[in-house]
């Protein structure tokens, strides 16, 4: 039986840190759904359809990666898809509290599906979408932090 992981997030925008987690997840699972989910706490820079297009572009050569969008409860989606696990990346201790709460709540909502955490690779531990948006808005370079196509999209977004 094939195994499926869901990697949910805001992906606003997708960074090389996210790409790294997806690639490593493919070593553990047969398929990975990168799920653009909504966080009530965050106001987006890119629209859902822009983010979907970005992710499709970034993972176009990887047949085992599926991009999807879900406006509702993550665990409802995971149950429908019969996922084996939710994957999340952990950068620093500061991520832990939020991630621990979310994983515990998700486990409560659907006890059969666990969240597994992957430590971000050393070279990406400082990368966050929030900082990427800030640097892009101020015209800074993002080479080796986001995929080239995303750097291009950010430049277009903040073009004066
Ligand atoms: O990349 P982010 O913003 O840290 O991802 C957070 C996300 C989207 C994974 C989280 O907000 C989420 O799962 N949203 C879907 C709605 C949901 O199920 N909320 C309850 C979480 S306990």
Explain briefly what this protein structure is.
By secondary structure, the chain is of the alpha/beta class. The chain has helices at 16-25, 48-58, 74-81, 93-109, 129-137, 148-157; strands spanning 4-9, 31-37, 65-70, 85-90, 114-119.
Strands, helices and their partners?
Blueprint: E1 4-9, H1 16-25, E2 31-37, H2 48-58, E3 65-70, H3 74-81, E4 85-90, H4 93-109, E5 114-119, H5 129-137, H6 148-157
Parallel strand pairs: 1-2, 1-4, 2-3, 4-5
Bound molecules: 4'-phosphopantetheine.
Q: How does this model look, in words?
A:
41% of the residues lie in helices and 19% in strands. The chain has a single domain, classed as Rossmann fold. The chain has 160 residues and is of the alpha/beta class. The model has no long low-confidence stretch (mean pLDDT 95). It has helices at residues 16-25, 48-58, 74-81, 93-109, 129-137, 148-157, and strands at 4-9, 31-37, 65-70, 85-90, 114-119. It has a 5-stranded parallel beta sheet, sandwiched between helices. 4'-phosphopantetheine (PNS) binds at residues 8-10, 37-39, 42, 73-74, 102, 105-106. 4'-phosphopantetheine binds next to β1 and α4.
